[in-house]
Task: structure prediction
Amino acid sequence: MKVAFLGLGRMGAPMAAHVVRAGHDVTVWNRTSGKAGDLLDLGATEGLSVAAAVADAEVVVLMLFGPDAVRAVLADVIAGAPGALVVDASTIGPEAAHEFAKACHAEGLRYVDAPVAGSVKPATDGTLGVFLGGAADDVQLARELAVLWGDPDRVLHVGGVGSASALKLCVNQGLGVMAAGLGESLRLGRDLGIDKDLLLLVLSQTAYGWYLNQKLPMIQADDFTAATFSVDLMAKDLDLAVTSADSDLEVTRACLDQAKRTLAAGHSGEDYAAITGHLAGEGEANGY
Result:
């Protein structure tokens, strides 16, 4: 297929690489230049604008920061790729997914929301979880690409447009609550005089085990610069969760506040585990 891939961040670049390696005709674009080098070596072409990237594309894949970033490029996608299928892998929330689908359908394009579960290593390995929301025929075509970056057993058609984005918010909401909760567990342990290494060992054998299996070295070193999923993205997703719900998500709002405080403390661009580290050390001159 002729595929346009827009968005070459930590996740987008390895996802696009799988599409190129599979032999598709791929044109890539990124808002900031300089991200396409490795993909060009693999055989991709770089579009210098959205319009140039999507020209004649059968499928346009979006892997962008959030709904505002998608909104900023969608008009050019619609104008430049008539009849194409838009596969939106961005985490945008269900309301935006419906908005974008409506805009695409009005101009004869098709739309599937296709957010992913997992971070950089699964993206590189091609083992992400992928949630697909849309009409059956559109999802069938989207799946042909999604299985390139996702584990085929975890590429799931979960319902109509918006359903995949809704499910993704639930996933990331849980991660954000986990990060903030562990931060307060560590702060509690600090206040009670428990050795940090001992506390982390014991907590790794509890429900925090999955999270600590990934983030323990960062937390022990108090260094969150090797980001796989940034605090900025987590704050955006927690905000989407809060604003998408009819109910008042009080715990999620509190975790969003902590994510914002972590950003305000200078951790923008760092891994979202910085929420844990910031909470654990807050109020203690030497940290914990």
The chain has two domains: 2-160, 167-281. The chain is about 55% helix and 15% strand. Residues 2-160 form a domain with the Rossmann fold fold (CATH 3.40.50.720). The two ends are 52 Å apart (CA to CA).
